[in-house]
Every structure is written in structure tokens, then in C-alpha cells.
């Protein structure tokens, strides 16, 4: 059976981008068709300035939201990265096959390090090596597929390179994984800055729809989305990124196709109104289930405890084999 691994970082409140680009597919497709592991990658939350209590709180919230989005612990494994030592153990070995040059070429590193420096802050070494830890996350489980949004495709490519290099040099140890992308909404953009992705970590408020936003907050954000001075609703990502983003969100929420939908609307106002309602409807069941789960914190605890145990049992043989292969 195909094995699937994916993760979410507890660096902020989860967004509509996380849901449409990743979580929904994990729940609707991956957990049914594959042996799937979904991880709250809390070690990755330490690569930028962080507040310890907030990371802990957001990890728990992310776990609760993954379950609210439909992940079923009877069908898949949900766990927290730091509960399983194998990630850090393997990451060090992979640092010994990765190069400084390939780390510095990562687009996300350049963007995030640039932002830190612009703020006058220093760049943590872990921000540079973060893709290696991500490679360890994936390779430890022998995952065949990694369902991710567009922003993570480069990191999965790096993971493949490291797996191939390790296997060639030290003997066949790792499965070489591939990235899989959702058909629509691979990249949900910020409603206020449609050239940047809707990322939970960059707290730019009004352009981000959070999964726990009240319906009225969702409506307000979508109705105020930046478009352009044109009138005609056409689907053109380059020339009309704001409108294209709304069409993609609407398509992802209703199961339609962005080009076809563009023909249905005669004004931006009508498009925004329908998009807002579609988003509210998509979030409703997730929010209801989230409320139920919050009333039963022991359940989420139990899921994470069992998940870590299962994950550990899966990762240990591969990581032990990698230690032996590399000469330890
Ligand atoms: P973030 O960028 O929000 O910190 P994570 O790295 O935790 O996101 O990503 C969790 C999953 O959500 C990944 O598979 C990522 O590709 C996907 N994802 C995040 N933001 C978006 C977005 N705006 N559009 C589509 N997918 C996204």
C-alpha cells in the first residue's frame, strides 16, 4: 500500500490555504487510499523567533483542527514530531549528505532569511537546515507520496536528491518519495496581497482567512479582497491575480473550475459574495467538529499518544538501518 506523509507547522492559526491546499485532501483522499501519517511538525516552529507557550498551544490547536477537518485516527496516524526522537536522529545523518550550497538555494530560505534580516534580526541556523529535517520527516517513514501545496515542492525535490545520494553512497536505505499536488487551490493567495501566498505565519490579518474565523469575519475579509480596476471577471493569474485567487477559492470550495466560473459572473461584487458564502459553508462543519473536540481534550491527548507510538514503531527500523549503513 502506498505510504503518505505530510505535516503542518504550529507557527500560527491554520488558514483556508492550509485547508484547501492540503488538509481537505488528506481527509477526503489520502487517509482512505493510503497508509497515511500526518504530523504536527513542532520542531520546524523553532526556526524563527518563537514563544514556547504559544508553540505548545498552537500544536494542540493544529492537532484538534486536523481531527476536525476529518482525519480519523482509525484510518491514519496523527502525531507530534517532537514526540518521536527519530526525526532529529535522522536529520543529523542527512546533514552529513546535504551540502551548504543546496540549502542556500532553497527559495523559502532566501525569502524567510531576507525577511528576518530586513527586520534587523539574526537568522537561526535551523532555518537554513530546516529542509533537511523535513527530508528526515519523510524518509524516516519510507513515504512514497508527500501531498503538499506548491510552496513545498522544492523541499520534496531536495528530499528525493538526499535519498538518492544516501542510497548510492551507503546502500539502499530510503524510499525515494514524490510530491503530489491538489488539482485546484495548490496555492491560495493572500486576499490583500494576491502575489503572496496565504501563509499562517505572516500575521497580515485582513488578507488571511483562518479556519476558526466566525462567518461574519470571513465575509468581511472576502468582500474586502483586493482585485483590480477592471470590471470583467476573467481568469488570468498573471494579469488579474486577485480575481484569479477568488475564482480558485470558489472553485475549490464548490468543486467547479475557475475558468468556467469566470463566465458566470458579471461583476466582482457578485463573485466576492458567492465566494464568501462558499467559504463559510466549507468551514462550517470543521468549526462545529472543532467545538465538540475542544469539549473532550482527553480524546485529542489519546490520539496523539497512540499516534506517536505507532509512528515511532514505523520510523525506528529505517533510522536504525541508516545509522548502520553510514558507519555507526
Ligand atoms: P504555512 O505556510 O501556512 O506555515 P505549513 O508549512 O504548515 O504552512 O503547510 C502545511 C500544508 O499546507 C503544506 O502542505 C502547504 O503546502 C499547505 N499550504 C500552506 N499554505 C498554503 C496556501 N496558501 N495555499 C495552498 N496550500 C498551502
TrEMBL record:
Pfam families: tRNA-synt_1b. Keywords: Aminoacyl-tRNA synthetase, ATP-binding, Cytoplasm, Ligase, Nucleotide-binding, Protein biosynthesis. L-tryptophan binds at residue 137. InterPro entries: aa-tRNA-synth_I_CS, aa-tRNA-synth_Ic, Rossmann-like_a/b/a_fold, Trp-tRNA-ligase, Trp-tRNA-ligase_bac-type, Trp-tRNA_synthetase. GO terms for molecular function: ligase activity. Transmembrane segments: none annotated. A motif ('HIGH' region) lies at residues 10-18. Its main location: cytoplasm. It catalyses: tRNA(Trp) + L-tryptophan + ATP = L-tryptophyl-tRNA(Trp) + AMP + diphosphate + H(+). It is an enzyme of class 6 (ligase). It is found in: Cytoplasm. Catalyzes the attachment of tryptophan to tRNA(Trp). Homodimer. Belongs to the class-I aminoacyl-tRNA synthetase family. This is Tryptophan--tRNA ligase. It comes from Streptomyces plumbiresistens.
Amino acid at each position: 500500500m502506498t505510504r503518505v506523509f505530510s505535516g503542518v507547522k504550529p507557527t500560527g492559526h491554520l488558514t483556508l490555504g492550509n485547508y484547501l491546499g492540503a488538509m481537505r485532501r488528506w481527509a477526503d483522499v489520502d487517509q482512505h487510499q493510503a497508509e497515511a501519517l500526518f504530523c504536527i511538525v513542532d520542531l520546524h516552529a523553532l526556526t524563527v523567533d518563537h514563544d514556547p507557550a504559544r508553540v505548545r498551544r498552537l500544536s494542540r490547536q493544529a492537532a484538534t483542527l486536523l481531527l476536525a477537518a476529518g482525519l480519523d485516527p482509525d484510518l491514519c496516524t496523527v502525531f507530534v514530531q517532537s514526540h518521536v526522537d527519530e526525526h532529529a536522529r535522522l536529520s543529523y545523518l542527512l546533514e552529513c549528505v546535504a551540502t551548504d550550497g543546496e540549502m542556500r538555494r532553497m527559495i523559502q530560505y532566501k525569502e524567510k532569511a531576507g525577511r528576518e534580516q530586513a527586520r534587523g534580526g539574526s537568522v537561526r541556523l535551523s532555518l537554513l537546515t530546516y529542509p533537511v529535517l523535513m527530508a528526515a520527516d519523510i524518509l524516516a517513514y519510507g513515504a512514497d507520496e508527500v501531498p503538499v501545496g506548491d510552496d513545498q515542492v522544492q523541499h520534496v525535490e531536495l528530499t528525493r536528491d538526499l535519498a538518492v545520494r544516501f542510497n548510492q553512497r551507503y546502500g539502499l536505505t530510503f524510499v525515494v518519495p514524490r510530491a503530489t499536488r491538489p488539482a485546484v487551490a495548490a496555492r491560495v493567495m493572500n486576499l490583500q496581497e494576491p502575489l503572496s501566498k496565504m501563509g499562517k505565519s505572516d500575521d497580515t490579518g485582513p488578507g488571511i482567512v483562518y479556519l476558526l474565523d466566525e462567518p461574519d469575519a470571513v465575509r468581511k475579509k472576502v468582500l474586502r479582497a483586493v482585485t483590480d480596476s477592471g470590471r470583467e471577471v476573467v481568469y488570468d493569474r498573471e494579469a488579474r491575480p486577485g480575481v484569479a485567487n477568488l475564482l480558485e477559492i470558489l472553485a475549490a470550495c464548490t468543486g467547479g473550475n475557475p475558468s468556467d466560473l469566470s463566465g458566470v459572473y458579471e461583476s466582482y461584487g457578485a463573485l466576492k459574495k458567492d465566494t464568501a458564502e462558499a467559504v463559510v459553508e466549507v468551514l462550517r462543519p470543521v468549526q462545529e467538529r472543532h467545538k465538540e473536540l475542544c469539549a473532550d481534550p482527553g480524546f485529542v491527548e489519546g490520539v496523539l499518544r497512540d499516534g506517536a507510538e505507532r509512528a515511532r514503531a514505523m520510523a525506528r527500523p529505517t533510522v536504525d538501518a541508516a545509522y548502520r549503513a553510514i558507519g555507526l
